[in-house]
Amino acid sequence: MQNKSGSQKLNRRDFFRQGSSVAVGAASLAALGAPAILSGQNLNSRITLGMIGTGSRGGSILRSIDKHERSIVTDLCDIYQPNLQESAGYVTRNPKVRTTEIWEELVERKDLDAVIVSTPLYLHVPMCIAALETGKHVFSEKSMGLNMKQVNQMAAAAAEHADKVYLVGYQSHLNECLAEAKRIYEAGSIGKATQFSVHFDRNQTWKKEDVPAEWERVLNWRLYKEYCGGVLTEVVTHEIDQVLHILGTMPVKAGFYGEIMVYKDGREHHDSVMGAWEMEDGVLGFGTGHFSNTYRGVGWILQGTHGTIVSDGGSIKIYWEKAARHLDSFGIEHKFTAVKLGQSLEDVSSSSMTKPKEFKKEVDGDYELSTGREFEHFYDCILDGVEPLMGAGTARKPSVAAFMAYESSMNGGRQYTREEIEAMG
Fold first, then answer.
1. What is the pTM of this model?
2. DSSP characters over 306-324
3. What local confidence, expressed as pLDDT, does residue 23 receive?
């Protein structure tokens, strides 16, 4: 393993202190010449990958892609040496992987084809823009950016560099279960959508303990407003993204409340958040995120006049209402004949609903397998010109929905409209 830090190294305080100013510096980096689609470093024309940010999510990505035949990781960057050293061990096929603490050094390498950005949220946009400007394809972890201004900057950069792939890690768009849920909904099988709920409920602190004082904010960045939007932009955004994809509409207003209920440890982000969105067509959505109870787990529910779709990530269950035919008199159209899933309306699990029909896919429910699949999609986009399923246009939508909820929760539950949020950019 080769460690090349150089004299221009940013110390950790500068790295995290710069905040919005780093975006200006990164966005103004001069392009150093775009490489061919595969520069390859003489490694059998595989896609050469460099990763910025080798913490928990970065390590998971490296483990997921280590055996991929179409790519090889050649460069790693992190300011925290324990993460950097550990992550190098996940790159088993390249013992000469290069490491650095200077992210600009990585993106400027002319023998890199693509850059993976898995850093704290506030750094996604400046680093992704810099990588595009130096001719790299970019995989960015979700969410797209810290705020509306960043998201708009990123969308503009992706459009300007349309010859390069820009992909955001909303990997659920590749889930077979999500595709099936969308097909069922669009076929009218659950009737007219009326409500949905999204939830991320865990019993965990989200705080790393026993770390040196000077690294506390760096390693616990999810707890602080300067670096991300807490549970809403970090995880609930995954669930609302899936529902937006199925419905094909956007929220027009949101009202959310948040409190620090349990973890009185100096964090700035709430450990309990709850609220609602109103959609363009009047559908109402309920969202929760908290860190002191796991009852609902992680997932979403979509309710219609004739049925309900329930997702827990790795599977979906469809329930049909038994007493829904009277709704025809209110002009709500529905054809039970469209349901060709072997589901008898006589199968009784309750007095009002049928027993569920379940669809379950192994890859959808496996964290690292689904991560590997999204990178295979990334390679398809680079090598074969496949349209990214999670490009800037798609990734912008859950960010806007999350910003609406976040601003409301941080301002005492005041209702925010989509227009207000978009005006912030």
1. 0.86
2. SEEEEE-SSEEEEEEBSS-
3. 36
